[in-house]
Amino acid sequence: MNTIGIDVGCKELVVVMRVNGKSRKARSFDNTLLDINLFFKL
After folding, report:
1. Rg (CA), the chain
2. Could you report the per-residue pLDDT of 3-31, keeping only the tens digit for each?
3. Total structural domains in the chain?
4. Which of 12, 15, 24, 35 is most buried by a 10 A CB count?
C-alpha cells in the first residue's frame, strides 16, 4: 500500500511518501507557485 504524509505550514510543505512499506526521504517545498507545481509533479 502506498501512502503520503503532508505537513502544511505557512512557509513550506513537507512531504513523505511511503511506497511498498518503505518511507522515502522527506521533501520540502516553499509555498510558492513554482514549488507547488513541483509538488504536483511527484
Report:
1. 11
2. 999 999 999 999 999 999 999 999 999 99
3. 1
4. 15
Name the 3-class secondary structure at 15: strand
Residue 12, exposed/middle/buried by CB under 10 A (0-12, 13-18, 19+)? middle
- Identify the domain containing residue 22 by its residue range: 3-40
> Alpha-carbon torsion 4, 16, 14, 9, what sign?
positive
Structural contact between residues 29 and 40, judged by C-beta atoms closer than 8 angstroms: no
pTM value is 0.74
Q: Is there a contact between 14 and 28 (Cβ–Cβ < 8 Å)?
A: yes
Residue type at 17 in one-letter notation:
M
